[in-house]
Amino acid sequence: MRGWMAAAGAGLTSLVLLAALSSAAATLTVDGGVLQVFTYPVHIEVPTEPSGLKCVSTGFFSRRLEWQPSPLADGYRIYHKGLWPPGGDFSLLAEIPDASVTSYDELMPSLLRHSYYMTSYLTSWESGHSETITVHCRPRLFDFPGPCGLEGENHHSQRTVDLTWDAIAGAVSYGVLRSATSGGPYELLAATGVPAYTDTAVADGVTYYYVVVAVDVAGNESDPSVEVAVADVAPTPTPMPTWTPTATPTLEPASTTEPAATPTPTPTVTFTPTPMLTSTPTPTPTWTPTPTATPEVPPTPQPTATLTPTPTPTSIAALEPTATLEPTSTPVATGEPSPTPTATVEPVTTAAPEG
For residue 186, is it within any domain? Predict the structure, then answer.
């Protein structure tokens, strides 16, 4: 920086002027008098911007910005820019009045990416800004809780996942993040101004893990919501009726043998033929003429035996006629030969059956 000093006379007090002028002589008129001005170089040094800015982990839930000190600085200023508003400007995050401090601890891990840069200052002078870093470190906030009630529903036929959650006071935007593994790392799907989102970039058979964070008007990020897993479950197809042929029972002996029915023999009708009635002819008695003495006696006529057949004898014995031989006495003359006995046949009468 160059400046110049002017000395005034003629009863005027000293006047010191600083200006960005090169070394030269100048003439000024003051109250009608002439003021001779002599200039000479004046060097003023201002601090340079910090260097080596980075975000480092100091624990599971803590992060820290670190940088290299700037000479001649009275202190440092940290500027931050979050996800919201898109394309917005950086805003002052913190001012550190001690130039010997080279770190800032009020950060924590984030799911969204945040950008930072720094400047150093000397009284009213401020340096240019440092390099800008974009990291997963967010400012620590104690009054900005994460969204609650995150739920997801998979629509297999449409290959979409519908997400809903409860609104957060002070949130102007929500960041929806997804991972293929539980616990991350997560990728930002979208920023939405309403507490709902539909993920249309899903694949069949993949389980996705979702979290949601809220963002306020300054771009600060809330705590993340509880992770929710949404599986792609295909609808269970309606089973088609299966026709199972019914086995035709075969006539086979059962495992438990029942006593076989003993057939009742059909009584055999033995036909006993009725003996045929054999008509035994009764021998016709042979008449032998008996010689008679003179005078000749005419022969006595003999009765003729008449055979009357019996219709149905009850026994064979009944069928047989009973012949009774009775001697017939014929008076003969004295001295003449004895007469030959004559057989007399008496017919046997058998009653005929009724009807």
Answer: yes
Domain count, the chain: 3
Structural domain harbouring 116: 51-139
Residue 248 has pLDDT above 80, yes or no: no
Tell whether 133 and 155 lie within a shared domain: no
Sign of torsion over alpha carbons 188, 190, 196, 198: negative
b/e sequence 304-334, b meaning 16+ C-beta within 10 Å: ebeeeebeeeeeeeebebeeeeeeeeeeeee
Neighbours of 232 (CB within 10 A): 16
Looking at the structure, do residues 32 and 72 belong to the same domain, yes or no?
Answer: no
111 is a domain residue: yes
Does 36 score more than 70 pLDDT? no
CATH number at residue 195: 2.60.40.10
Query: In angstroms, rounded to a whole number, what is the distance separating the alpha carbons of residues 194 and 227?
Result: 19
Q: Examine the domain organization and report whether 39 and 64 are in the same domain.
A: no
**8 A C-beta contact, residue 132 and residue 117:** yes
CB 209 within 8 A of CB 179: yes
Q: How far does the chain reach from its first CA to its final CA, in angstroms?
A: 175
Phi, psi of 50 (to 5 degrees): -65, 160
Answer whether 177's CB lies under 8 Å from 189's CB: yes
φ/ψ (deg, to 5) at 317: -65, -30
pLDDT digits (tens, 9 = 90+) for 328-338: 444 444 455 55
pTM for the model stands at 0.52
* Residue 88 domain-assigned (yes or no): yes
Condensed to tens digits (0 to 9), the pLDDT of residues 211-237 reads 999 998 888 899 899 999 998 766 566
